[in-house]
């Protein structure tokens, strides 16, 4: 919340984080290599207050932690065939508690999930082909416990809650989730033309039970003797809803909470199209540019419970993200190297909503509206630059600057 606070006044927006990690690598033979990795991360922060909450003495604290362990193994079957295998276990938790002066709502939360992940893939080089195929599996156990007490239905002169909403609420849930995926792909080079194609299958079962096929195609062509490469791609994507409070958002509690609307959450599906170029102007200068458009159905977003920091996954019926990226790179100009990049992104979400739990007076607008508005991925202008100076073969200096609108 530090860069995107849910209230403009933003009192008590303070926190700290820390962690540690350890890794071990073992080369068993020329054909076998294993890597072990483990880390622990923890974050503590205070929920941002607005003016009236700060005057009342509200304090809401949040913490989140994650413990992760993973192992990966690489095996060379033959000079042309490589196998990679991975396994991971993760335990994630998040808690929220409030003091007695919290207003207009006093929430408490304890949620988290355990997740195990296994994957394997085989890559093979055959003639002009780079073939790869594999499978993945996620196995998760999700638990949620959320309660709140409405202290006041108003905050100052502004009505926050409808009178129909009961003053006390408690939700507890637990479930298992499963996701299985498989893919196959090929990268084929024919002289100046490179073609990459593949297809992926996903089966998701948690908030919904759905399957999807995702084809992908990419083409790159190097114009002979010009230093120019043209490329384009198409991807069909499948994205599961966010894990945060997904059980509550997937439960029809609209009537329990005094009315509203409930729509089942479904995974997002989208089409990504991109085209671009890379041009070497001289041995020291290269230009890159690309344009893209991404269109979504059931676009995933989140909705906050006032400014408590508790968010719930929701979905818009549609969304579009489009933009372009450009970069100028200077290489080997004496002792100097540098780059300058600029990107522009426009993201628009469209009503009506397509999934989630909704309360309040604006439910009819959300369900029947046709308006559009910017989404959190909307980043209109981003400018980045860096210059590096090699003062000595073992010493270099660099300076960078960035601007984000």
What this model shows, in words?
There is one protein chain. With 405 residues, the protein is mainly beta. Helix content is 4%, strand content 70%. It has an 18-stranded antiparallel β-sheet that branches. A hairpin with a 6-residue loop joins β15 and β16 (311-333).
Strand fraction equals over 45%
- Total strands: 20
Structural class: mainly beta
Continuous helix count: 3
Note poorly predicted spans. none
- SSE pattern, N- to C-terminal: EEHEEEEEEEEEEHEEEEEHEEE
Please report the distance between the alpha carbons of the first and last residues.
18 Å
* Shape assignment: globular
Q: What's the average pLDDT?
A: 91
**How would a crystallographer describe the biggest sheet?**
18 strands, antiparallel
What is the share of helical residues?
under 10%
- Return Rg in Å: 25 Å
Question: How are the SSEs placed, and which strands pair?
Answer:
Blueprint: E1 15-27, E2 32-46, H1 51-56, E3 60-78, E4 81-98, E5 105-126, E6 129-150, E7 154-155, E8 158-159, E9 168-190, E10 193-205, E11 209-223, E12 228-239, H2 246-249, E13 261-263, E14 268-282, E15 285-304, E16 311-333, E17 336-358, H3 363-368, E18 372-374, E19 382-392, E20 395-404
Antiparallel strand pairs: 1-2, 2-3, 3-4, 4-5, 5-6, 6-9, 7-8, 9-10, 10-11, 11-12, 12-14, 13-17, 14-15, 15-16, 16-17, 17-18, 17-19, 19-20
